[in-house]
């Protein structure tokens, strides 16, 4: 515009005109508007209301013997519940925090020492670790072993060796009675 | 095209209003000059294009029979196999066609690497190609989820979980991809929608790829630019015929798998319906992802504040994205490896390393080669070499290597006198 022979009305010394301002202002409003209009499209892919409303799960713990594990489904994911033996509890409590990739004391991961409740999804890439059933590999630390990429978890479900960055997640849960928990 | 054809009144009427016939003739016909020395390595691009059309055609027919719901997807695929007329043929063509597409495109890419087809002025042509392979990978990954077998489900789980490595927003991204808290029905539905969309995105990218190709024309085995008409022959009939020969040989190979070994590239576990509570003992991606899977797994150690998982994910994506920078990483002015004695050897070494990465990617995490060498160490060494090839070796070779003397022109390369412009056929 500054190149035109006749100066546009309102032009300043360095060639800026009101038209430049209007052009930039209009373009900006247009871009911001388009970005805002994109949000409903993006947000429609987020978990829908019915998915979010998935109920919590109640579990009766009374049939589980010491040294036994069960797997329950919560929000489409497996939750491991293990009644740990005294040996496993002692092992979990004896580990020094500085030996852990994701330091967390065993007492911070359980509500009652014998009951370990955690989401049974490897924190690496989401496989289900082995170790729930008798005869499955439990890894080098006597807990769980993820077959996909070789992560070893200890008897507190903490990552000890392999590519997983974090300990197995502890879901929100509460003891309704001595032998009954509600997850979620 | 012939004068008789162009003088046909109907053709003339159309041509006057929409010059489509002259456009075709100038794009893939007798008016498109092509280097006369192109060998069979130059047929893989058009073969890949034909396979894209086969994939879209078979895919649309399959879509008419498939049900994208976790309760019906697996059964609807079995119905296609057993009850739908020629359903088995359409599915096996589509299934094996995916593998064929990757074989052809990988050869096409190694062709580009060997003959330096990515160098100026074809950088954008190469970069568009990198976007095509990325779009192909996304399409193939989502397509593999649709039959809702065990490998479908766990492949989807592992790959979508890669995004949880992104700091801060990773968890949010993964739930956004899933539309829930795990791979489930919303995930299957959106993968189906996107798997249908992406081939058309690839088609558009291929169009832009060809557009860029037609500006500076094909590279050639000598790697010297076209100097004049004596260096070229018309695309039609010479290279349409050559491509058809390649197509015939390729179809024997392709249909050999379709009819005699349709599950050769597949995993038996994918004929087990998806079970969110049981991970298969050994999750492997499809063969065409194995080298990248090996790179992902090579990082089982943290570097400073970067956790192993994030490093693996970054390395895996970088292994492809680094190709975007190759035109500037290669400092040699000479294109073809025929005239680059040192680069030629490193090219083949790089090729072997890529195959090795594929082998490592197919083994379990704790596998020992010969019962002795841990696969993870081989994977780490091969990953290091893969990146060193691009970042260190490629620029260094370009600086230090003394290339063999280039012929004056494409024609001169095959004439005894070696003088420019006196081609054997002229």
Detailed description of the structure:
The complex is a heterodimer of chains A (184) and B (426). With 184 residues, chain A is an alpha+beta fold. Chain A has helices spanning 18-43, 49-52, 86-94, and strands spanning 57-60, 69-74, 77-83, 115-119, 142-146, 151-154, 159-161, 173-177, 180-183. The mean pLDDT of chain A is 86. Chain B is mainly alpha-helical. Chain B has a single domain, classed as Cytochrome Bc1 Complex, Chain C. Chain B has helices at residues 3-6, 9-17, 20-28, 44-63, 73-82, 87-114, 123-145, 150-161, 170-178, 185-216, 235-260, 290-298, 308-321, 326-329, 341-361, 375-400, and strands at residues 33-35, 232-234, 368-369, 373-374. Chains A and B meet through loops of A and helix 8, helix 9 and helix 13 of B.
Summarize the helices and strands and which ones pair or pack.
The complex is a heterodimer of chains A (184) and B (426).
Chain A: H1 18-43, H2 49-52, E1 57-60, E2 69-74, E3 77-83, H3 86-94, E4 115-119, E5 142-146, E6 151-154, E7 159-161, E8 173-177, E9 180-183
Antiparallel strand pairs in A: 1-9, 2-3, 3-4, 5-6, 6-7, 8-9
Chain B: H1 3-6, H2 9-17, H3 20-28, E1 33-35, H4 44-63, H5 73-82, H6 87-114, H7 123-145, H8 150-161, H9 170-178, H10 185-216, E2 232-234, H11 235-260, H12 290-298, H13 308-321, H14 326-329, H15 341-361, E3 368-369, E4 373-374, H16 375-400
Antiparallel strand pairs in B: 1-2, 3-4
Helix pairs in contact in B: 4-6, 4-10, 5-6, 6-7, 6-11, 7-8, 7-10, 12-13, 12-15, 12-16, 15-16
